[in-house]
Amino acid sequence: MAKTIMIVDDSASIRKVVRLTLESQGFDVIDAADGVEALKKLNGVKIHLLITDVNMPNMDGITLVQEAKKLPAYKFTPMMMLTTEAGDEKKMQGRAAGAKAWLVKPFQPPILLNAVSKLILP
Amino acid sequence: MNNIDKAFFYIMPSSIPVVGSLLLIFFTDIAITLSLFIFCCTFGLSLLVGYLLFSKLQLAQAKLASSHQQANNNFLQQTQSYIDALEELMGEVLPVVSKQIKTSKEHVEQEVLSLTDRFLAITKKISLLLDDQRKSDDDAVIGTLLTSTKTILNGVINDLCNLNSNEKTIFQEVEKLSSYTAELESMANDVRNVADNINLLALNAAIEAARAGEHGRGFAVVADEIKKLASSSASTGSRMNKTLDDINTAMASTLTSSKTTTQVYSKTIESSSEHIEKVLTDIENTLYAFKDKSQTLADASEQIQSEVYHVITALQFQDRVTQILEHAEHNLYDFNELLLANQTVPKTERSADLIQTNDILEKMALRYTVPEELANHQATVAGEQKTPGQESKGDDLTFF
Which of A40, A52, B209, B378 is most exposed, with minimal Cβ within 10 Å? Predict the structure, then answer.
């Protein structure tokens, strides 16, 4: 059965290219434009990985990771940040929130897929 | 001008007559009264001259101060009007620039989104085409098709060969029969020879019977019957010969016809085999050409995949551009708000403290999310003229 990945980014074009990259490898994809929309969609649906941008309106990615980790269904779901931010301070915030990886945009599809394959639990 | 200066103005001119009078008193014989008189007169005169000089100087100084004041006032007015004009310019220009940035951002977003959609559609179509191709160009499919076609066509050739072989067997049998007819012909000739000899014998017997006279009459009847038999045997032999001739003619005709048929069959089979072989070779060549094309297509599909990945990476420029433009827009907006807030402060109370350049720059820097933004900012603040190189190489992957 295909694994499901959620991509959260306020840029519609980023959501589309991430979707294309993941779907080409047989993953199912759910998307959301910000943290609030993402939490609304995380209503118990099984996801195997959450990929989120950091800077977004309404709710940023780091808060989203913190909030999602509070939900029992997503406590052990691997989460990864996909952002233009490359500063160590921000990375530490992401790590503290519970993210397992940090990928700086623009990403190359093979590198994203490599990160995904390492993060998704069998 | 302070009091010392004032005293200096009085003392300096008066000091000359005082010194002169004192010299007159001590070193000449002029009466002291006259000396005192001269001293008083010169001293008074000196004071008058000092006063006049001082008044003139004061007048000149006042005039100079007044002209300085005028110049200062003019300068202040000009500076104030320059600041007012600058504020007005900023107030007009900043919202316009903000609006232009916003529009550019929206355009970039819209167009890149449309570009991305089209690109996704093309990618999906290519992917479907390549999948179809992969299904049809399976080696096993080509192999099976070739083998089954070969089997069927070879079966047809075998059937034809069998037919030809049967025909040849018949031909050989007929040929064998013709050798029997020669034997039969010889036997018919023997019959005819025997009949001739019997006929001769009957003739001799009849002669001998005639010689015997009355006693040989019975024997003459027998000889006559034998002659009839011999004649009948000879006739049978002739008929046999004729029939054998007929059979030979028919067999020769059959043999010729059979030979021709066999030759035609052989030629037909040979030609059919050649045609079938050619058709099979053509099919094989076509299929392998097709397979080569499939391989080319498969190679192309790998290149396409790599190109698709490059485009996916390149399309993400919109995200960075949008963020940079958004921050520029917000920073200009904040700057404009600051100017508007400062304009509400009475002009007499405005000072440089209202504009904290470092604070503003620090606040701007806090917004940045793209490394190039920060690099540009730092380079510009440091006074560097050239734009720093592209910092956002991306793909910096860190696992925690």
Answer: A40
Say if strands A4-8 and A101-104 run parallel, antiparallel, or are unpaired.
Answer: unpaired
Chain A positions touching chain B (beta carbons under 8 Å): 9, 11-14, 16-17, 20-21, 24, 54-55, 83-86, 91, 94-95, 99-111, 114-115, 118
Amino acid at A35: G
Say if the ipTM goes beyond 0.95: no
Residue B91 to residue B88: CA distance in whole angstroms: 5
* CATH assignment of the domain containing A36: 3.40.50.2300
Q: Give per-residue pLDDT as tens, B1-36.
A: 566 666 666 666 667 767 777 777 777 777 778 877
- Best probe of the A interface among B301, B306, B327, B395, by most A CBs < 10 A, is B395
Residue with token string 């310019």: B89
Total number of domains constituting chain A: 1
Residues in chain B within 8 Å Cβ distance of A16: 113, 116-117, 120
Q: How far is B385 from chain A (nearest CA, A)?
A: 25
Q: How far apart are CA B399 and CA B157, in angstroms?
A: 70
Domain span at A14: 4-119
